[in-house]
Structure formats: C-alpha cells, structure tokens
Amino acid sequence: MPAAARRILSTAALEFRIARRNRWVAVAAGLMAAFALVIAAAGIGGAQGLAVDPLSVTVASLVSLAVYIAPLLALLISFDAVAGEVERGTLLLHLAYPLSRGELLLGKLLAQLAALTLAILAGYAAAGAAAFAAAGPAAAEGLPALWRLTWTTALLGATFLSLGHGLSCVARRPSGAAAMAIGLWLVAIVLYDLGLLAAIVADDGGAFTTRVLPWALALNPADAFRIHNLAASGAVEAASGLSGAAASIAAWKPLAALLAWPVAAAGLARLAFARVQP
Amino acid sequence: MLTVRHLSKLYAGRPALDDVSLSVAAGERVALLGHNGAGKSTLMKLALGLLRPDGGRIEAAGHAPGSPAARAATACLPENVAFHPALTGREQIRHFLRLRGRPAREADGLLAQVGLAEAAGRRIGTYSKGMRQRVGLAQALIGAPRLMLLDEPTSGLDPVSRREFYALLDRLAAGGTAILLSSHALSELEARTDRIVILARGRKVAEGTLGELRAAAALPLTATLRPCPGAEAALAARFPEAVVEGARLSFPCAPGDKLATLERIAAARDLVADFDLAAPSLDDLYSQISRRAA
Hints:
The structure holds 2 protein chains of 2 kinds. Chain A is mostly helical. Chain A is 82% helix and 0% strand. Chain A is built from 12 helices and no strands. In chain A, helix 2 runs antiparallel to helix 3, helix 3 (54-78) runs antiparallel to helix 6 and helix 3 packs parallel to helix 7. Chain A is globular and about 60 Å long. Residues 235-242 of chain A have low confidence and may be disordered. Chain B has helices at 40-48, 68-73, 89-99, 107-113, 129-140, 159-174, 186-189, 210-217, 232-238, 258-267, 282-293, and strands at residues 2-11, 14-24, 29-33, 55-60, 74-77, 147-151, 178-183, 195-200, 203-208, 221-227, 243-245, 248-253, 272-278. The chains are: A mainly alpha, B alpha/beta.
C-alpha cells in the first residue's frame, strides 16, 4: 500500500473509533432510523389508492427529510474536526508527523463519511423494510429510487462534512465553528429556498423564473439533490412544491452539481486548513 | 543536524526571535533555556516548519523544516502535549507508528520503555498529567529519530521519572540522535546536557557548557560557619564581612578566593564547630544571567 494511503487510512480508522466512542455513530444511526420510520409510516398510509408503489412514495418523502437532516448531521459531526484539535492542543503534534494537511483532512472526511453513511443506511433500510412489510413484493419497484436516494444522500453529506471542516478551520474555536455551522445550514437549506420562493412570487413568471431560477436551484447542493431525486423518480407527481420547477431543468445539471460539490467543498476546506497555525 | 542562522520571527510587529543562531550536531544534547515567552516554543515551531521565519535560515536534518524529508527525520514533543481522551495509549501510539511507516506492534515496547505498560489499554482521558507526558515521550522515541525537539519535556514528571528520562536521552544521544530540549529552569536540566543556550526576550544571551557559564558568571560561593559555644563574638571579629543568621555566620566568597578562605577558617579552627562552602545553585546562576541580559 502506498505510504500516503496508509497514513490516510490510519487517520480514518482512528477518527472513526473516536466517532464511535463519542456515540456519534449510534446517535446518528438511531436518529435517521427513527425519522425514516415515521416518514415511511406516513407515506404508506398516503400511498393507498395511488397508482405508484408504496416504496416510491416513501422515497419521495425521504428526499424532503434527507435534505434537512443529512446536512445537519454532517455539520454536527464535522464542525469540531480542526477547531477541536486546535483547542485540545493535538494538532501541532499531528502536523509535525510525516502526514500532510490534505491527508489529515481526507482521513477525517473518510471516517465521518463512513459514520454518516452508516446512519443513512440504517434509516433507509428501516424505511425500505417498512414499505416491503406493508405492500409485499410490489415495493420492489421503488428499489432503484431508494438506491439513488442512498448514494446521493452520501454525496450531499460529504459536501456538508467538508464545508463543516472549512468552517472549523475558519472559526479556530469549536464554539464559533458550531455557530457558523448552524448559520450555514439555515442559509443553504432553509433561507435559500425561501428567498427563491419570494423571488418567484415577486417576479411572477418573468426573466428570473425562466433564466436565473434553474441555475440557482442546480447550484445549491441541497436543491440539486432534491431535484435529481424527484426528477429521476417516477414519483414526481407524489411530491409537491418544487416539482414544477424541477421539470424545467436539464437532468445533467443537478447531477453534475451533486458530483462536483463534494470535490469543491473538500478543496475549500483544504484551502482554509492551510491558514491554520497550531 | 539542526542549523539555525540569524533567525528572526515577528509576532504582531514585535520580535519573538531576534537574530538567533545555534546548531545541534548528531549525538549532541543542547538545552534551550528561557522564561515563558522568551521564544523557545517559537524556535521549536520554526524548526518543525509550522511557522515561517521573517529572517534568517533554518535547516532540520539537512532539509527545509516541514518538508517530508525533514518531518521523517524529526521527532517532537510539544509543550503541554495532548491526545484525544477517548483513545487508549496503545491506540494512539499504534497510529503514530503507522504514520511513520513502522509496524504497529512496536507500540507496547515503546509504552513499556516509558513505564506505561500497565496503562496501555486504558483511555488517555483517565491518565495523569505525568502519564500523558510519558505518552508524548513514547511517540517521540518512534523509529530512533535523527533529530529530537523536546519542548519542556520534563514538566509534570516526578524527580525519579525525570532522571530516567535523562538516562533515555543519554542512550539516544549515544546512538547519534541530535537533541534540542527546552526548559524554563536550569535546575530542571540536572546538568545532563552538553551545551546550554539561554534565550531572553527572543535574543540569545548566553551559550556554553554549564562550566563555562559558571565561570563567565563568576558568582560567589557562600561560606557558612557554626561557632563553638561561647565563641560567637570572637569568630565574628575574625570574619567582619559575615552576617549573622541565627546561630551561624555566612559570607560570600569569590571563586578565586576559595583557598584563601579555607586558610582563614583553618586558622580559626579553635572557634569553629563546623563549616560549609556552597557553590551557587543552578537557579542562582540562571537568574544572574537573565538579570544581566535585561
């Protein structure tokens, strides 16, 4: 194994162990499973009488859950990554080792992404099991949508993990990093959409709605995630809200945004880390 | 192994290090001495490549500090070393071994070397300050580094552990490791280093062996006399420069006057029950050098 890969994996293994001991793995998985089961129960109830299978309906509901919960969990897991090491005084020793800053950050990202992915799998598996229990083999029609939801949620999570690392570097202190993480979540997930909605209402079908809005939706990783899942899923009709807007956006745009964001966010975090002095 | 030439570093416009030069050869133990804020930790961070100098040059193991080659050859123990409390000592050392490309099974041997064999499986959060310091020492010993930078390595160690620690350094230096260790007190060093460099407010104010520093400082010794019963007044008359401290008389004695002073005491042997001639302590020496620098 190349030396760099060995250092990254050792860092990831150590960080995952810390995440497990800090109960992050168990708490995140429990939270996702609980939320997903509630959504599944509601979706199965609402699917009765619809033409689509219950799992596809559940997936459409899970998209709305994941778009809030996955970034929030990712930020909660990651905000302490660098600021916490600075405060504990452990960063100086790490940086004195033959371990580059990029390797250290990548190791942390891998470990936290593993913890987050476990939580995602726990949640979606619970929801899938509930759908199969309610509808029998018919639910299998929704499996491709559930799989798409799973890997896109992981990409969305990776994006916000790296954004959390970046904030952790900029803030230098865990308390400041936590405040910035919550602020980022509010702006990127909640206020961004509210702002777009307000603009649509004010614009009333003008140039903003036709030209700017599709790009604005594709560029925000959370909206890209939502549109990609809803547009590609057969359950667009079952979802409300942005489905109309989603129809007007070429399918490659949100997918490209989903793939590019984790890389761009990791690059931003690495740039911010370069300015941190232990 | 470590070469520092005319090194300067500014913090917020004020010099933290000002034109400092020093070198540590392979197998040499050099102590860096100074008050808190004298620039010791700044020099260590510069040698690790974690800070950039504002002037001068620095080379670690023949490479630029912070370069992969320099990092591979350099071990460090930072001041107030810390570890994640959720990890055990063994897990932490195994990770550090892997980072240096060493087999992780060496961890238990390293922990045993610093007296932590029993505690290796316990979480570091349950360790005392002295035990955390030992974990720090254990990681610095990984792979017999060519250059060791130790920032206040003996803080938190009891006197017995401190002696063991210096014995460990002796063995490393005998094997060719260049060692730079910092301390805020000369007495902490127990005279177990080859050379001493004293920093004060970012400047080098003295350098030499302990003997050379003593000679340069020319501090007086302290002579103490205990008079025979009833001979107090007579003895005080023989040594008019002495001050009375309880039942004793004491007076300073310049290093060059030791024999003459002994002769005077011998001449008064009928009046003297006991006497002592004490060399200045290491702390006396250090405070005199830093006072003179100020």
